[in-house]
From TrEMBL:
<keyword id="KW-0788">Thiol protease</keyword>
<dbReference type="GO" id="GO:0006915">
    <property type="term" value="P:apoptotic process"/>
</dbReference>
<dbReference type="InterPro" id="IPR011600">
    <property type="entry name" value="Pept_C14_caspase"/>
</dbReference>
<dbReference type="InterPro" id="IPR002398">
    <property type="entry name" value="Pept_C14"/>
</dbReference>
<keyword id="KW-0865">Zymogen</keyword>
<dbReference type="GO" id="GO:0008234">
    <property type="term" value="F:cysteine-type peptidase activity"/>
</dbReference>
<dbReference type="InterPro" id="IPR002138">
    <property type="entry name" value="Pept_C14_p10"/>
</dbReference>
<dbReference type="Pfam" id="PF00656">
    <property type="entry name" value="Peptidase_C14"/>
</dbReference>
<protein>
    <submittedName>
        <fullName>Uncharacterized protein</fullName>
    </submittedName>
</protein>
<feature type="domain" description="Caspase family p10">
    <location>
        <begin position="251"/>
        <end position="310"/>
    </location>
</feature>
<dbReference type="InterPro" id="IPR011029">
    <property type="entry name" value="DEATH-like_dom_sf"/>
</dbReference>
<dbReference type="GO" id="GO:0006508">
    <property type="term" value="P:proteolysis"/>
</dbReference>
<comment type="similarity">
    <text>Belongs to the peptidase C14A family.</text>
</comment>
<keyword id="KW-0645">Protease</keyword>
<dbReference type="InterPro" id="IPR015917">
    <property type="entry name" value="Pept_C14A"/>
</dbReference>
<keyword id="KW-0053">Apoptosis</keyword>
<feature type="domain" description="Caspase family p20">
    <location>
        <begin position="117"/>
        <end position="240"/>
    </location>
</feature>
Length: 314
């Protein structure tokens, strides 16, 4: 059943646009949006041209045509040409900038994480008064999420069924991990199953103590967590009051959507785009995000496109 609905979704998606067209549009948009910044930041155009020739993005004839202009016009002509070069234009440009030590220009085109591990992810699952049938689907969700983040290159820390006091201790301990100094990002994946408090900004711990979402976020901001200053801090909150009979057997559609979309697109799309794909996945399945089932995502402290490159590839 789960395999069938995945196949139907991707068949439908391919009918809307081809992957090549989507990649071309994405790279063109990124380059055009940052055109003036790249022109101003390009100190040695000849070096950029040579590296692009070496990567076979340009040939000598095109290089000569570009050089037959004044300085600023040459830069503009080069980047406008690359905007038409299709998929991989942005990746190749980023590699050129990285090789030359132009880290600012590299990040302007989007952050591609490269640390090993890529980041550290804390997965917390809170189960409150669910039946045995729902527990099966819940455990499937947890296992799928753990496997996803490991495959993305993250070290995963898993905690289950915490009281409020335990929850606060584990979050604070995670925010103090020395490994956060060495990685490019951090992720919190919070999954709750069962009743919710009346306060929409809070969740129940196992002892029915209420934990505020903003309290969690603040533990990873300066001065509480200076190790993550300037780094992406990803927060996923999945709150489920009940699972359908189908979800109890296969896991929830929301978690399946995240796992499938990230698996197919983490090597080529930034995270904001992938979360839009997740919403499309849910709409295609006829799933609605309601007060009973909520999926929220936030990227705090980082305002550029974030890629999991190389991510997951089939």
């Amino acid at each position: 059943m789960a395999s069938k609905r995945r196949n139907m979704f991707y068949q439908n998606k391919k009918q809307e646009t081809t992957e090549i067209e989507r990649d071309e549009n994405r790279d063109r948009e990124i380059i055009l949006q940052n055109l003036e910044y790249m022109i101003d930041g390009t100190e040695d155009l000849n070096l950029v041209l040579q590296k692009l020739v070496n990567k076979r993005m340009l040939d000598e004839k095109i290089r000569a045509e570009i050089e037959d202009n004044d300085a600023d016009e040459r830069k503009k002509k080069l980047y406008l040409l690359l905007a038409k070069c299709g998929p991989s234009a942005v990746i190749n440009l980023q590699e050129c900038f990285k090789e030359m030590g132009w880290n600012v220009l590299q990040d302007v085109l989007g952050k591609r994480m490269s640390s090993s591990p890529m980041g550290v992810a804390l997965v917390i699952n809170i189960d409150i008064e669910t039946c045995e049938e729902e527990k099966r689907g819940m455990e499937m969700d947890v296992n799928n999420i753990i496997n996803l983040w490991k495959a993305l290159g993250y070290k995963v820390v898993i905690r289950k069924d915490l009281t409020k006091r335990q929850f606060e201790y584990e979050v604070k301990a995670f925010s103090c991990m020395t490994e956060l100094n060495e990685v490019d990002s951090m992720a919190i994946i919070l999954m709750t199953h069962g009743p919710k408090p009346d306060d929409a900004d809070g969740i129940f711990a196992c002892d029915k103590g209420i934990i505020r979402y903003e309290w969690i976020v603040k533990q990873f901001e300066v001065p509480n967590c200076s190790q993550l200053m300037g780094k992406p801090k990803l927060f996923f909150l999945y709150s489920c009051c009940f699972l359908s009979s189908d979800s109890a057997n296969y896991g929830s559609c929301m978690m399946e959507g995240i796992c499938e979309v990230f698996k197919h697109h983490a090597h080529e799309e930034h995270i904001e785009t992938m979360m839009k794909f997740v919403n499309k996945f849910l709409q295609f399945q006829g799933e609605e995000i309601s007060n009973d089932n909520i999926l929220t995502f936030e990227n705090r402290g980082f305002n550029k496109d974030l890629y999991f490159y190389p991510g997951l590839q089939d």
